[in-house]
Amino acid sequence: MIGTYVLPLSADEMTSDPIPADRVAGRRAWRAQGAVADEGVLVDVGGRLVALAGVTAAEDDLLAAAAAVTVEGDRAVVPAEGLPDGWSALGEGHVFDLAPGTAALQTVDAGPVTWMAAYGSSGVGHVVVSVSEGDAVRVRAARLVTDDVEEVEVRGHDALLARTTVGTDPAVTVSVTWEERPGVIVQVASSADLDADVVLDLARAVVPVTTEALPDLRRQVMETQALDSGGAVVGRGTFGDVDWILVDRRDDGMLELLTTAVPGASSSQGEGAGGEVAGDGGGGGPAPVFDGYTTGNVGAFRYGLGEVAAGVAAVEVRDPDGTLVTEAAVVEGSGVRAWVAELPAGPDDRPYVVVALDATGTELGTTTLHG
Predict the structure, then answer these.
(1) Which 3 state secondary structure label does DSSP give 166?
(2) Cα dist. 159→127, 165, 181, 252, 313 in Å?
(3) Which long-range contacts does 200-209 make (Cβ < 8 Å, 24+ apart)?
(4) For the CA atoms of the chain, what is the radius of gyration?
(5) Which of 61-65, 327-331, 347-351 has the highest mean pLDDT?
(6) Which DSSP string do the residues of 222-279 spell out, in sequence order?
(7) Cα distances (Å, whole numbers) of residue 104 to 49, 108, 141, 168, 171
(8) For a Cys staple, 110 with which of 74, 100, 138, 291, CB 3.0–4.6 Å?
(9) How far apart are the C-alpha atoms of 105 and 103, rounded to whole Å?
(10) What's the whole-model pTM score?
(11) What single-letter DSSP state applies at residue 50?
(12) pLDDT, tens digit, 9 for 90 and up, residues 1-24
């Protein structure tokens, strides 16, 4: 197998062992063994530096491809007529990203990621599980970007375990990639220096689930996150089809909302200060009603939350004109009383007025929330 890709480097910077020009149709070319795959060639194509990585490819075949390769935008392509005898195109996709300022390969990705999750252990590292469109070529592509690859088995599927050295202060990342079913590729990739046996064990623990089973699985994950957070549960509830748990992580200076919402292309979180009060707390000072707030989103699910005083029985979220938007849940646990509300979809900067009420419906105070 031969892989081709354009490098964001200048050919004029090359100091590697040169290849005689008559072997690559008069082009400037250099050997790059050990940099990628089993054999590597770097070739100057019209001022663009193209890398060709060969896996069990004869040197003559690799050089023939280097002589014929062309650059089309950001793609390095060998025309059919330039392929060595017996060779054919297998497929193409985005195969790598270079770390800024280094020559280390950072990721291997040959298709749009359709699902991704991350799992970690404090002080140990983390892995990311991704599901992408692709085929067996996608699995074999790991051989094109690292020469430290071994064949392994994951639940009866042939898989490749690849170790990749990254960064100017070298560290090793590990990935395990396999074809789960035709057209679906799964990859488990680790943070730096996580032991390969651990990554492989985690990869073998990844199992497909049905759409019907996903809500229960998300609840299990949320409950596990709550247990592992190191904080105390303040309360829990449900907004529509989204379950949530509010955790007090005051040692980290925060209240954290864990949810079963489906992560989307973006997630965010913001904070704000406390608001105004209605009345006097005695001693000439106002009684604290709100102690700041937090807003955020998990995919399409948007929320607001914050601490309230002990006398607060209900919290309403209103538009600036006083129109009721939603009633918040008020929860109390582990010495913390707080409100949690699902916010409507809309502009992130849309302002709301959050109103605290006592048991008689009397307003105790307000705060302005910016989503």
Answers:
(1) strand
(2) 17, 20, 12, 40, 57
(3) 200/152, 200/154, 200/161, 200/176, 202/119, 202/127, 203/154, 203/159, 203/176, 203/178, 204/154, 204/155, 206/129, 206/154, 207/155, 208/180
(4) 28
(5) 327-331
(6) HHHHHHHTSSEEEEEEEETTEEEEEEEEGGGTEEEEEE-PPP-S-EEEEEE---EESS
(7) 16, 12, 16, 8, 10
(8) 138
(9) 7
(10) 0.56
(11) E
(12) 777 877 777 777 777 778 999 999
Residue 257: both structure tokens together: 């909302």
Measured distance CA(48)–CA(7) in Å, rounded: 8
The model's pLDDT over 187-245, given as tens digits with 9 standing for 90+, comes to 888 876 678 898 899 899 888 877 788 888 888 888 888 887 778 899 999 999 899 99
Q: How many residues are listed for the chain in this entry? A: 371
Closest CA to 177 of 132, 119, 125: 132
- Distances in whole angstroms, Cα of residue 326 to Cα of each of 11, 226, 319, 342: 61, 26, 10, 8
